[in-house]
UniProtKB/TrEMBL annotation:
It comes from Shewanella eurypsychrophilus. It is a multi-pass membrane protein. This is Cation:proton antiporter. Residues 14-392 form the Cation/H+ exchanger transmembrane domain. Its main location: membrane. It is found in: Cell membrane. It comes from the Bacteria. Keywords: Antiport, Cell membrane, Ion transport, Membrane, Transmembrane, Transmembrane helix, Transport. The chain crosses the membrane at residues 6-25, 32-52, 58-80, 92-113, 119-140, 161-180, 186-208, 229-261, 281-299, 306-327, 333-357, 369-387.
């Protein structure tokens, strides 16, 4: 693989998309759709101009940084005061809907893939549980959609990645060690440790880092151009520091952004500017690499069963648990369905597959699992990309902030 050729191609794709991005948005064609499409076109699946190994180090780093920056910026743009007033929906989604989704996914997987070991099927359900608000960007950025609903979707997307990640690592460790079941509840303590330490480290870095930024600005110590760079440093610092202190880096990035964006209004504005430029770049490059590397790797292993499970994962296995979790939340059926549908699979699932592939050494024996994840993400990129703006507009016509209590 010539990484320089890949970088050159990425630059050209960015130029082409940049020139026509506004025109494409009118057709409900999103950035992830375009970049994934270009990746597929240039891969062995298309013109075979270049190829890249899915476990190449630079691929892992780019996708990892992209997820960290997305979590940080999404959290920073949340209104913490509003969240304190309307925490019940995200709590239902995370603590009722998420477990049901994992259990339902595992059970259906046993029916569709009866020959796969149970631990593999649990892993599959976990890999497809995290959602990616970036694929439904129009939903969480459209001011016509009630803030409470946008915030709930954003919080769920930001936190479920980190909550699921420790469990993914636990299952991977069980598979690698040859265990099929565990005799103690040590993994539960591990999950709690990852979440608690991640939240504490991330929150501290976000709060202190922002306070120092405000101090530096007030004292005229900082050039204004550097204010957009501070969020990048805080996001990456929170991730790696948390990982070194037994916490979860993705949880840390989310909480760092949450505190940074709600500690200073000017900082929130700088983070928003950063998210729309530098952060967006990493996200789009990740989807390009997905089309270039992931899809060709699993193409030979795609079957009717794989496509069926991918379809169910995006529909019934996502929507039914979410709607069950929202029973009693005083939401109408349209709102429940709206939240349930916008649970796209994207960067988190891609990154988790990379981590699993790294831990396992190869895809040998996991071809079906990887194929399902690839097809699900591919379907989600186009299904949620095409429906985000139309459904957001349709929903907003009938629902306003004063109607959503």
């Amino acid at each position: 693989m010539d990484e320089h050729i890949v970088i050159l191609i990425i630059a050209l794709v960015i130029l082409v998309y940049g020139y026509i991005s506004k025109a494409l948005s009118r057709l409900n064609i999103s950035g992830p759709m375009v970049f994934t499409g270009f990746g597929l076109l240039l891969s062995p699946f298309g013109f075979n101009i270049t190829q890249v190994e899915v476990n190449a180090e630079f691929v892992t780093i780019i996708v990892e940084i992209a997820l960290v920056l997305v979590l940080f910026s999404d959290a920073a743009l949340l209104d913490l005061k509003l969240l304190k007033q309307s925490w019940k929906i995200p709590a239902r989604l995370l603590f009722i809907g998420l477990p049901i989704t994992i259990l339902a996914g595992t059970y259906v997987a046993t029916l569709i893939f009866p020959d796969e070991p149970m631990t593999y099927l649990i892993l599959l359900a976990l890999l497809l549980t995290p959602t990616d608000a970036a694929l439904g960007k129009a939903v969480v950025t459209d001011p016509k959609v009630p803030k409470k609903i946008r915030s709930s979707i954003n919080v769920e997307s930001g936190l479920n990645d980190g909550i699921v990640f420790p469990i993914v690592l636990t299952v991977v460790a069980m598979i690698v060690s040859g265990l099929t079941e565990t005799q103690d509840n040590g993994w539960m303590a591990y999950v709690v440790e990852q979440i608690v330490f991640g939240a504490l480290v991330g929150g501290a870095i976000g709060y202190v880092g922002t306070k120092l930024t405000v101090l530096a600005v007030n004292k005229s110590w900082m050039e204004s151009n550097y204010q957009n760079l501070i969020p990048i440093a805080l996001a990456i610092l929170s991730f790696y520091l948390s990982e070194s202190l037994a916490g979860n880096g993705f949880i840390a990035a989310f909480f760092a952004g949450l505190y940074a964006g709600n500690t200073c209004e000017k900082t929130r504005q700088h983070i928003e500017d950063f998210a729309e430029t530098e952060g967006e770049l990493f996200v789009l490059v990740s989807f390009f690499l997905f089309g270039l590397a992931f899809v060709p790797m699993t193409l030979a292993h795609i079957s009717v069963e794989v496509v069926l499970f991918a379809f169910l994962s995006l529909t019934v296995l996502r929507m039914l648990p979410v709607m069950i979790s929202l029973i009693g939340a005083k939401l109408d059926l349209a709102t429940m369905a709206f939240i349930a549908w916008f649970g796209p699979r994207g960067i988190a699932s891609i990154l988790y597959v990379l981590i699993v592939a790294h831990e396992m050494g190869s895809i040998q024996g996991f071809e079906t699992i990887y194929a399902v994840v690839t097809v699900t993400v591919l379907m989600s990129i186009f299904a949620h990309g095409l429906t985000a703006q139309p459904l957001a507009s349709l929903y907003a016509k009938r629902h306003r902030d004063n109607k959503i209590k």
